[in-house]
Design a protein that fits this description.
four-stranded antiparallel sheet; alpha+beta
C-alpha cells in the first residue's frame, strides 16, 4: 500500500461513516442508494485486500514492509511531540535530534533500528518533561512492540512476493472503481441536497477534502517511485512540461503537481539524481485533474569484493565517495548500491581489520555497472 492509497482509504472510511449517519435521508433516493451500496461493498473488498497484502489488523500476519511503515509512522508521532517540546523549551540540542522528517528513516534495517532506538532512549530519559505532551512509557513501549515484530518478521519468499504484486494490481483497480462510484455520488448529492440540506453537503465535501481538491483548475499530479511496488519514494525528483516551461519538485510523499494550464496533449519529463530520465506523454481536458504514477529505473552499482587471496570478502562496508550511499557485501562478496549518481565516482571499501580498497567508475543513467575490487 502506498502513502497515497493509504490517504484515500482513510477518506473512504470517513465516507462510509457519513453514509451511515445520513442513511435515513437517502432512503427514497434510489440511484444514490444503489451507488452507496456498491461503494460499501468496494470499501470492504479493499480492506480485505489490505489484509491479504499484510496491512491488516492481525500483528503476526502483517508483512515486514507493513510493520516497517507502521514503526516509522509510530515513531514520527513521538518525534513531532518531542520537537514541539524542544521548540517550546528552546533546547537547540533537542531541536536537532527531533527536527527530522519521515524521509530520514529511509535507511537499511540495521541503521533504521539504531536511529529508532536512539530516539526512544532520548524520549525515555526525558519522560518526566515529555509527559504533558502525552509521551509516556506506554506510548514508547507500543513503538518497541512494533519494532520487535518488525525484526522478527521475515521477508516474503519469491512466490509470496509474486502473489503480493497481483494483490497490489487488484487493489489499484478496486481503488479506481471506488473513486468512480464517489464521482457519481458527488454529482447526485450536490445536485439533490445542496439547497434542501446544505449542512449535509458541507459535511460530505469536508470528508471528501481528505484527498480531493475542490478547485477546478487543470492539474497533473505525479507520484514518482524507484520500484514497481511503489515502496521507494523519490523525494526531490523534477517533474516538468518543457512546452510550458514549468517545473516542480516532488515532496516528502514523492508527489509533484503542475497546475493551471490549458488542456491538450503534453509530455511530462521526470528526472531524479541516480535514475534514468522518463518522458511520459499524457492528455488532459480543461478543468480536469490527472494523477499518474511514474517508476524510474535506478542506476545500480554492483561491487564484487575479494580479499588479499582473491576469495570473496563478506561483511565489507562499501560506499560511494561524497555521497550517503552505502552497503555491505554478502557472503559471496557482492554489494549492491542503488540510485548511484551519473558520471565519474569512486567506490570505497573497508573491513573490520582495517583492510581497504577504492576504485573509480563511470555510471551511466539507467544502467547496472559491475566492478571488481580487492582489499589491500
Amino acid at each position: 500500500m502506498t502513502k497515497k492509497q493509504g490517504k484515500k482509504i482513510d477518506m473512504y472510511a470517513l465516507i462510509v461513516l457519513f453514509f451511515v449517519k445520513f442513511e435515513g435521508d437517502f432512503l427514497t433516493d434510489i440511484p444514490l442508494v444503489t451507488q452507496i451500496t456498491d461503494f460499501k461493498v468496494k470499501e470492504k473488498l479493499i480492506r480485505a485486500l489490505l489484509d491479504a497484502q499484510g496491512y491488516g489488523s492481525k500483528p503476526k500476519t502483517r508483512s515486514k514492509a507493513a510493520l516497517r511503515q507502521m514503526m516509522i509512522v509510530a515513531i514520527m508521532k513521538l518525534v513531532r511531540k518531542g520537537n514541539a517540546w524542544a521548540l517550546t523549551t528552546k533546547d537547540a540540542g533537542m531541536m536537532e535530534i527531533f527536527g527530522i522528517v519521515e524521509e530520514d528513516f529511509k535507511l537499511s534495517q540495521d541503521k533504521l533500528i539504531v536511529l529508532v532506538d536512539k530516539i526512544l532512549d532520548i524520549l525515555t530519559k526525558n519522560i518526566v518533561a515529555l509527559t504533558p505532551y502525552k509521551v509516556t512509557l506506554l506510548t514508547i513501549g507500543a513503538v518497541k512492540t512494533i519494532e520487535a515484530d518488525y525484526l522478527e518478521a521475515k521477508d516474503a519468499p519469491k512466490q509470496q512476493q509474486e502473489s503480493k504484486k497481483t494483490i497490489t494490481t487488484t487493489l489499484e483497480n478496486e481503488i479506481d472503481a471506488a473513486d468512480l462510484i464517489l464521482e457519481i455520488c458527488d454529482n447526485l448529492i450536490i445536485a439533490e441536497y445542496e439547497d434542501s440540506l446544505p449542512a449535509l453537503v458541507i459535511e460530505y465535501n469536508n470528508d471528501r477534502k481528505v484527498v480531493n481538491s475542490v478547485s477546478r483548475h487543470t492539474a497533473i499530479r505525479a507520484h514518482v517511485y524507484g520500484d514497481e511496488d511503489h515502496t521507494e519514494l523519490i523525494v526531490g525528483a523534477s517533474i516538468g512540461i518543457a512546452s510550458l516551461k514549468r517545473n516542480e519538485l516532488t515532496d516528502i510523499d514523492a508527489m509533484g503537481e503542475i497546475i493551471q494550464f490549458k488542456g491538450g496533449d503534453y509530455v511530462l519529463d521526470v528526472k531524479a539524481v541516480g535514475y534514468a530520465d522518463a518522458a511520459v506523454p499524457f492528455s488532459i481536458k480543461k478543468g480536469k485533474h490527472l494523477e499518474i504514477d511514474v517508476v524510474l529505473v535506478p542506476n545500480v552499482l554492483e561491487v564484487y569484493m575479494t580479499d588479499a587471496k582473491g576469495l570473496p570478502a563478506g561483511d565489507v562496508a562499501v560506499s560511494i565517495a561524497n555521497t550517503t550511499i552505502s552497503a555491505a557485501t554478502n557472503a559471496q562478496g557482492i554489494a549492491l548500491m542503488y540510485a548511484v549518481p551519473e558520471g565519474n565516482g569512486i567506490a570505497e571499501g573497508s573491513d573490520i581489520n582495517g583492510n581497504a580498497s577504492s576504485k573509480g567508475f563511470l555510471m551511466v543513467n539507467g544502467k547496472r555497472l559491475r566492478i571488481e575490487m580487492q582489499l589491500g
